[in-house]
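For the sake of transparency, this paper describes our internal protein records without simplification. The remainder of this section carries one protein's record, kept here as part of the documentation:
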Amino acid sequence: MVAQLSDVADKTFDYVIVGGGTAGLTIAARLLENTDSSVLVLEAGAPNLDDPKILLGGGWGSTFTDPKFSHEFLRWMKPPAADVDAWEELGNPGWNWKSYMKYTLRAEGFTAASEDQLKEYAHTHNIEYRGQTGPIKTTVPVTPLQINKFFLEAAQKQGLPLLEDSYGGHTTGCWEGSACLDRKAKWTRSYAATAYYLPHKDNAKLKVLTEATGAKILFDDAKDGEDLVATGVEFIHGGKTYKAYANKEVVLAGGTIKSPQLLELSGIGRRDVLDKIGVPLKLELPGVGENMQDHTYVGVSYELDPNVSHKTADLFRNPEFAKEQVSLQDLDKENLHRLGITAFGYVPLQLASPNGAPSIVEKMTAYVEEKKQSGTLPPGLAEQWDIQLRVLKDATLPDMETLAFPGWLTFISRPEPGKCYLTALCVIQHEFSRGRVHSKSSDPLEQPDIDPNTFSVPYDLDIFTENLKFVRRLAATEPFKSGVVREVDPGLTAQTDEEIKEYLRNYCTTCFHACGTLSMLPREKNGVVNPKLQVYGTKKLRVADMSIIPLEIAAHTQATAYYVGEYVADILIGAA
């Protein structure tokens, strides 16, 4: 089902795609469907099509510390339209809400709630916002959750409207979302491999080589002042180095962390970084590896009332229960692997903290103005911050997320055997802080240095603090209040604002939603790619992953990665 080294080494293809994930496989499939081109996909990971850790839900968290896996809670989610239109405002014609809807509708194949599901909960949707025939299957998870009901009811009592459908560009409110589950495949995960690779796996024009790490991009010898022309990719497989060549294009789809590293190993990036790792500079692009943004989260865990039967991931800690669920799954019967994380609230700062919001907005505005006047900001950041300030001041747009995670997901205490928990996650959305990712050495197998620079803009922490306090207000609101026995983490150790900030500093972590390290911006604004996603100063080289997104969105990022893949595919075939 995957290529052998002999099919690839020293061979020439029309397109070489580095990264066989969300966007990479999307592009490969669309090229095969719409052109006569040959496509090679180089994927650093192992072949894992049948791995239950990927296919089955309910085991969230079990892969967080395993570098073999990427992480997504099966979430299919779209951002506010304003977040996407901001990319066009930053100098990228065509990257707007209209195109976002076009390409995410193409990717999605939605199935509405069944009659039985509607008896359990009044799931609503607007069919205009949902793709009908796309390869990524989305639906309402089969397992209903009591915790969702009291979470959403409490949220409404705290002023969040219950949305009919959050997929049309308006997300401020609370709702039950969809998950990437395929009802026709025993409710297993629908993702790039099942949706875009498997239908084409026997196509002779497609080769996918796994356990192949991109080492550097190959270029023609360029004269001074001329663009670099990509001709192929050098890669490592089985400890040895090989080459594959591209007639038409090389496309980097390694993600926000790995694509910048590959450019740097190829001689493209910041002069100081390349000097440090001993790679000769071929093309100076100071934005490579910079402008990294992410979502930072922390949990507040609650012990659920033991007198009520709850379906949470905590039950999987019982080996016998876990074994039984696998047996039920094999028999295609309802089981907890069909569980979803589906109760969400997207909250403006002004709603979360009516009294604290004016002061935070005032201090953030003063901070931004001071930095702009200092002349020390990197090119392009002032324009981004101006947009972020506009969003922060807009009481109709969300600044924070809270969601009902069905299980234990905090890191101070340990869950007690036999008990079930709800963890309310707090997630700050539009962080003003910027991080970076850069190569540590010239060794492609050494992971790059990641510096998220979290809370380097101090008022991000103030917003995050209000996020946690809002979650506690939800927990003190019926029926949430009666549904839990106690708050476990952080509990009594974090009551004052300063104590809460200490908890956030010590226990917050990434949502794996990073973007921006090869930003789609004008070159003079530290951009790395243009609106056609061509790397500045090169020909036949593009980037197609979350690294090109110049400004973070208020949403989980899976649907956006498919948007990038679908859009770039149209660019390559001449349809966009």
